[in-house]
Each structure stands twice: as structure tokens, then as C-alpha cells.
Predict the structure.
Amino acid sequence: MALLPSEFAELEPFAERWALATERERWAERTSSSIGDMQAFYDAIITEVGEAIAYCDKFPLDDMPEDATNLLRLVYSFVIVSFAVELWRQPYPPDTIGTEFQRTSEPLP
Amino acid sequence: MARYPKPAAGSWTEHYPELGTGPVSYEDSISPEWYELEKEAIFRRAWLQVGRVEEIPRTGRYFTKDISAVNTSIIVVRDGDDVRAFHNVCRHRGNKLVWQDFPKEDTSGMARQFTCKYHGWRYGLDGACVFAQQEGEFFNFDKADYGLKPVHCDVFAGFIFVNFSEQPTQSLREFLGPMLLGVEDYPFGQMTDRYGFRVECRSNWKVFSDAFMEFYHAPVVHVGQHPSQLRAAITQSGYEAPHYQVDGAHGLVTTAGSLHRVWDMPPENVKPADIATRSGLFGPWERSDLGELPPGINPGKIHPWGLSSFQFFPNFAILIWEAGWYNTHQFWPTSHNTLTFEGNVYSLPARSASERVGREMAAVSFKEYSLQDANTLEATQLGLESGVIDRFPLNDQEVLVRNFHKATADWVHDFQRESAEG
């Protein structure tokens, strides 16, 4: 059973791992992933982000179908992974490993 | 070679001659004895921000807040139009009244009354004791004498402040003063999309605050947030603010907007993820329309305006950004060399997924750079605690740091003088 809308089938292999509901889960996934794995996800989604956001924009935030919600969560993971891939070339910002900086609240989805 | 004009005195620091220009001691940030004085002189006497009214929108909604610097927890509760604060302590035998699962952790919820988990005493939202278990067993007892101990509480622009002194010497508005009162009409109350953050850090609360009062460090500590080909130039050009202001213990720094116009840059100088999300370090590129803003948010009349960072003595800050959002910082000491940092990023409720993604990018950026600060400041604390250096030079871009340490010392010295006078 596909997690994402069929238009985004090429991102489906990344959905189970990266369509995560909260920043806490996305941060945990980023900081336990290799830069190679994150680069592969980044390369696959960077050209699709604009269309993915436009797809999600068709629905009200408080009444999104599950597959669109998963797609939006995948875009959030793109955002968090982009820092590791574009800037740091490692999971943590330099010299920050070991600091538990927690997001304690956020709007959902 | 100043990029922006300085005051007639020659510098921002000399514009406030009581600040001096000499090197400063950081003994105030490594001494356990000094911290004990700060707790009494500052945290038990100043107005402290503890949250926003939107967190308790209806009668009975409450949150608790543990404030280590005054060794207490408080309950902040909505009752009709009133916001009230009480010490979170049962009057019977001192049990912490409201908590969930973990006695030390803060909680929030909805209640008609507060019921003690120990012997079942109950208190109304006005703090009155309304039920004492087996009341007849007590001696010469009237439960009307055993209401919750109140904490002075007042609201400014939707921010809830408390004061732990028996009788505050200044009202909240007197304490805030004209510069901070100037932000009052900003539409904080409409900006209910909130991303909250928290970190425990091993540095003195002032050492941590210092880094959020100056941007002199930004082209060094945070240069990695920019594409690599820009970094050398950013570090080399350094940082200057077009406007600083000091109003008693409080401070303001304004940055110019020219730095923030990312969309005017050649695309190779912008992170691909920023282009994809139309957002970044300085927030979403599409400015939120907030209507006409109060002149008090940009008292230096800086154009183009980037942001204004208002430092509320002793431990709170509001940063208002040109793009139509704001964030807060708060620095709660837990010992002389540890603190809890709380940050919040607020904006208008997102109306679409694309707006939500833009806010997510701003919130993730906030964490990435705050993480860089947090670890740097642990390193600063270690260096200070080595004690090998006892005087540190502060430059003109660090004028608010200088004022902040002077203000904390002034409050301690006033307290000592008043205590001596009895």
C-alpha cells in the first residue's frame, strides 16, 4: 500500500523512513543516518519539492488526505536533511554533537 | 570605517557614559556566591516573563512553571478575564500541588479546582481552599486561612509576568519603561503558530544571554549557515548594527534589512533548500501582512529595517523580524554555571501547506544556529572558570552585553545596600 500520492511514486522508496510526523522523529532519523543515505534522499526529492508543496496546497491544512500528509512530512524531512547535506556534510552542525536541543511544540501537520 | 553613523559621543558605548569603556570582569559568571545574590536581588525582585495568554485561553486552563532561581514552582491559571499565579504548594503539608507523572517537570491542562494528590485538599481557581479532608480533625481550624500563596502577576501585550517580592517596588509597566512599552501594539496575539524549543546547557545564564545580545559573533559562529563561496566575505566584513538603545537595565539592537533580501541575491549564493521552500535563516520570503506596525518596534527609524531585538531584563528577549514574525529567548539559571534555554518562534497561523513549509524552514534554521551557540557557550564557561584571565575587552557592538552585566551588578548592589539599611 503506497504511502504517497501516485504522482510521487519515485519518492515512495523514501517514504517509510522519512515521512515522520514530528521534528523529534525527523531529528533522530537525521542524526542516526549516514551522509550518503541523506544525500540519496536529498537528490531524489530536490527536484520534486516545488511540485510536492503545490500538491499539498490543494488541501486545507486541517483536512489533508493521509497520502498528502505523508508527502508534506517528507518535505519537512527534506528541510531538516538539507542542512546536513548542503552545509555541514555531516548529521550534526559542527561542534554540536551531544547537545539535546528539543523541539517541545509545533503546529501539526 | 563605520558602515553606519554612530552617536555624537563617538560610539554607542560612550553615548551611555555610565557604562565606561574599560575591560570587564566575568567573575559574576563563575562565582556560586554571586549567583546566590542574583537569586535574591534579581529573580526574587524583578518582573519575570513566564508565558503567553494564548497558552491559557479559557477559564480553568493552567500551566505550571518550575523556576529554579527562586526554588519554587508556580501555577498560572486563567479565571475569566483574569490571569492568576500561585505558588504550587499545598497549604496542608507542603506537597507540590499540581504535577503529572514526574514531580519535577512542568505540566499544563484544564481544571475546575486543583486537588492535592496527597490528602485531597482542594483549591479554587482564585486560590481559596474549598475543601480540607476530615476538616473536623484539625484544631482551631478555618480553611479560609489556608488559600494558595499568591504570586504577583500582570500581563503586558499578552506576555504574562510574575514578581516574587512581597510587594513589588514598581508596577510591571514602570519596570518595563518607555522603550519596551513601545512594542505593546504589535499583533503578538494573532501570531499563534508556535514552534517551541528547550535545551539544558552548562553555562552561566548571563554568558548564554550575552550571545543573544550581540551579533558580533554571527559572521564567525554562524557563517556556516551560508553557502560556502560566501563565507570568507561574510566573516571578513564582520557585523555592525545601525542602532543600539539602552533604557535602564533593558536593551535594544536593530539590524539593517539589506542583509535579509535573500531573493535579490544571485541564485548560486542561496541554498537550494531556501529556494525550494522560499524561506530560510531570516524567515519566509513572503512577508506576512500585519497591517500598520507600531513605531516603537523600530525606534531608530532604520530603513531598510531587518529586525529589532528587545532585551527584557533580566532574562527574556523578543526579536521582531521585518518578514512579519517574531521569536523569543529566555534564559533560566539552574545553578551558577547551568541554565535552561527556552526559545519560541511565532507567526500568523499558516493558511496553506506552502506557508507551513516556510515556517518549518525558519524553525529548523533557528535550531541549527541556536545549537551552534549552545555548545560555544559551554566552551566559554570552561574558559572563564579556568580563572587564568580576569579582564575582558568588550567592543562597541557588545554595548548591550556591557550594559547587561552592569545592570545585574547594580541590582545586586542595590539589594545589598537595602539589606544593610534594614
About this structure: Chain B touches chain A at residues 193-201, 224-225, 227, 271-273, 276-277, 349-354, 356-357, 359-361, 363-364, 367-368, 370-372, 374-376 (CB under 8 Å). Chain B has a mean pLDDT of 95.
